[in-house]
Amino acid sequence: MIAVCGIASETPIARVTAALDDLGLPYTVLHQRRFLELPFELEATGTGVRGRLTADSGTVDCAEVTGIYARLMDWRRLPEARHPDEDVLQRCRAWHEALSSWIEVAPGRVMNRAAASASNASKPHQAQLIRRTGFLVPETLVTNDPELVHDFGERHGELVYKSISCQRSVVHALDREATARLPLIRSCPVQFQQRVRGTNIRVHTVGDEVFATRITTDRVDYRYAHHDGGRAELSPWQPPDDLAHRCLRLADALGLDLAGIDLMLTDDGDVYCFEVNPSPAFTYFESHTGQPIARAIALALR
User: Fold this and answer.
1) Per-domain residue ranges for the chain?
2) For the whole prediction, is pTM greater than 0.90?
3) Was domain 139-194 assigned CATH 3.30.1490.20?
4) How many CB atoms lie within 10 A of CB 153?
5) Looking at the domain that runs over 2-111, which CATH code has it been given?
6) Which residues contact 174 (CB under 8 A, 6 or more apart)?
7) Strands 271-277 and 2-6: what pairing?
8) pLDDT, tens digit, 9 for 90 and up, residues 74-111
9) What does the pLDDT look like over 233-265, one tens digit per residue?
């Protein structure tokens, strides 16, 4: 039995469940927003963890679950968490705490445990882990001092800036307009990096499989290229064996059975790694390239 945890209508969740249906694999869905209808019981003892979960398919013994795909939204942001009834909020919190605890200790393959995903909560910290596996990492400065940013730019040329945490943000070039706003960073440290030019590559690792996508774009952040009239063209790409193996080693070093790895291939043949996403929105790439990523996830969870 495979457990799929999250918002059932979210595209990655829906793609994985569709793949499980196509493959005829047994699964159950734990809908975050239906915590009142789907009780979850968990007991931790000195010899292990046991419990039962309720889903549309019926009651399932946690011991029968062999694989978990978890893509959980912060429960505090759920519409149901805005309920004025304190009892509802307590039940919401308790349900998610039980579910999260089970995901952390459940045997079998889990995509992904919170402990393994934690490195993405601090991109500077994760960059140090990435560097240890042999990838190049852009020169980086995290500061709230505008003068240090000017000095950093004089040494490294073009700069970009991005969020430090795991919260999604648009990567921007530090152009003249953004430079004029630098005094604002005194209130909040910002991450600045040397701009690396080349070809964007997104690599998804699923277990021991690798799916790589080449992105041709005229914007700094290809994910948002169409928002301002830019272009982003995605196509499947076959990485050299050594690069594919390095990506698998990186995912393994971070403890991730599923990962989205952002690379840049320079014209000189260097490979930079920007970050590793432990909960990648793989459907964007799957839709543009036809790569069977959801199917690979389903098969890996058997």
Assistant:
1) 2-111, 139-194, 197-291
2) yes
3) yes
4) 16
5) 3.40.50
6) 149, 153, 158, 159, 160, 161, 192
7) unpaired
8) 999 999 888 788 999 999 999 999 999 999 999 899 99
9) 999 999 999 999 999 999 999 999 999 999 999
